[in-house]
Amino acid sequence: MSRSGAIQIRCPQCGGRDTHVVCTFHTEAEQLVRRRHCQFCDHRWYTVQSAEQPLSQYSIKWKGKSRIVSLIDH
Fold first, then answer.
1. pTM (2 decimals)?
2. Is the dihedral of CA 10, 14, 20, 25 positive or negative?
3. Which CATH number, 3.40.50, 2.20.25, 2.40.128, 1.20.1640, labels domain 1-52?
4. Tens-place pLDDT, residues 57-66
C-alpha cells in the first residue's frame, strides 16, 4: 500500500509501480471502470471494479493462513 492507504496497481506490461488513474467512470451495471497509465513504459489499460455487496445476513468464517472464507447463511 502507498502512504495514502491506496493499493498500488502494477503495470501488466512491465510490472512498474509508477502508475496513475487517467479517468474514472461508472457503467450502467454499477461497475467502476478506471483508465490507467504507466509512467515507466507508457502502457495504458483499464481496470474494472464491481459494486460491493453487503453481507449482513452472513457470518464470515476464516480458515487457516490461506484465508479461505466460508459464508454461513443465518
1. 0.59
2. negative
3. 2.20.25
4. 566 666 666 5
